[in-house]
Amino acid sequence: DTAVSQTPKYLVTQMGNDKSIKCEQNLGHDTMYWYKQDSKKFLKIMFSYNNKELIINETVPNRFSPKSPDKAHLNLHINSLELGDSAVYFCASSLIGAEGYTFGSGTRLTVV
Amino acid sequence: AQTVTQSQPEMSVQEAETVTLSCTYDTSESDYYLFWYKQPPSRQMILVIRQEAYKQQNATENRFSVNFQKAAKSFSLKISDSQLGDAAMYFCAYRSTRSGGGADGLTFGKGTHLIIQP
């Protein structure tokens, strides 16, 4: 009964492909996030989303799009993958007004 | 925008000794949360300790404690009796309470790689 689960854990794909990473949380949290961790281990928020509001970090290319079919899921879709997209992507969730976050175990994306 | 700075890319400590990891941050807000996260080689992000800015008392979790200096915008992590399992990347993070805090997410420092020498 993993609290925040991401699939797949590893993803290797060619440049130009379109791919999705799935995220599900069973904590009843109302806000979900995507973070990117680059090769230097730096973590940066990409998106935050609750059922009312999507906030996009302005540095994120529009090839990246979050898709939320319901409150427990926030998938990340990436179009036209580039070499520079190679990174570890983390999903996380929280309750608005509460300070705690729960992270998924990450997806290592490698673009070749 | 808030920034978080960890000035020590790497630290090394002997097993059973005490080590302190530094973190400073910049914000114009008066209320916020601060966190230390641990990331072992498994890459899982593990919450170590959290501090609410309006609380003057420093947070403590077993061998982990913080020195929170609000005026200096400093939030250091002290690990006592270091164990081999403490070896990991440690990230300091800031979260605003603005708009409930949720939508802004966490702002992370660049991390400190902690090595434990047996």
Descriptive terms for the model:
heterodimer; A: 112 residues; mainly beta; 7-stranded mixed β-sheet; 4-stranded antiparallel β-sheet; globular; B: 118 residues; 6-stranded mixed β-sheet; 12 strands; 52% strand
What can you see in these coordinates?
The complex is a heterodimer of chains A (112) and B (118). Chain A is 0% helix and 51% strand. Chain A is built from no helices and 11 strands. In chain A, the strands form 2 sheets. In chain A, strands 2, 4, 5, 6, 9, 10 and 11 form a 7-stranded mixed sheet that branches. Chain A has a 4-stranded antiparallel sheet with strand order 1-3-8-7, with no helix packed on it. In chain B, a hairpin with a 4-residue loop joins strand 8 and strand 9 (74-79). Chain B is globular, with a radius of gyration of 14 Å. Chain B is 0% helix and 52% strand. In chain B, strands 2, 5, 6, 10, 11 and 12 form a 6-stranded mixed sheet that branches. At the A-B interface, strand 4, strand 5 and strand 9 of A face strand 5, strand 6, strand 10 and strand 11 of B.
Write the layout of secondary structure elements.
The complex is a heterodimer of chains A (about 110) and B (about 120).
Chain A: E1 4-7, E2 10-13, E3 19-25, E4 31-37, E5 43-50, E6 54-56, E7 64-67, E8 75-78, E9 87-94, E10 101-103, E11 107-111
Parallel strand pairs in A: 2-11
Antiparallel strand pairs in A: 1-3, 3-8, 4-5, 4-9, 5-6, 7-8, 9-10, 9-11
Chain B: E1 3-5, E2 10-14, E3 19-21, E4 24-26, E5 32-39, E6 46-52, E7 60-61, E8 64-69, E9 74-79, E10 88-96, E11 106-108, E12 112-117
Parallel strand pairs in B: 2-12
Antiparallel strand pairs in B: 1-4, 3-9, 5-6, 5-10, 7-8, 8-9, 10-11, 10-12
